């Protein structure tokens, strides 16, 4: 038997009447299609979990509500799954949702994916193109062989952190200070975010 969460009740009650109707409808369909589902709050929004994994989530705002599956592309088979508004866009009424039988089938498919034990595919990470070293930083590094050696020894991601930090400066004075600070830290063998690294 599934488990409800009083925090979800409170969330729904705090929303506008149109959103309450949508959220209650979604909640009933999810529980009907997957009787073992459990409710919780994730990121302060109602979520449905199944066997310890997130199945779906819903939310409501001033003028619309949203609903989406965690493994959206696999459940719905659409590219629309990447939308921040969930798979069904901005919901302003129950009519914006698929037919109940279709939505129940999607809930069952989401549960079946969890039952299968397969992992959700991870999005492909496209490598970032290399950044050119700005002339002012190149000159400062050339004047300090220790800093240049440290920079050359950093992996591309750590080099990029310094390059982005320097080039994101808006004012020339700020940029000059960042170039000087970067060379100083690199001469000491420090990465850009060395202050936040665990000892």
From TrEMBL:
It comes from Sphingomonas horti. The lineage of its organism: Bacteria, Pseudomonadati, Pseudomonadota, Alphaproteobacteria, Sphingomonadales. Pfam families: DUF1801, OmdA. This is YdhG-like domain-containing protein. SUPFAM superfamilies: YdhG-like. Transmembrane segments: none annotated. Residues 22-110 form the YdhG-like domain. It comes from the Bacteria.
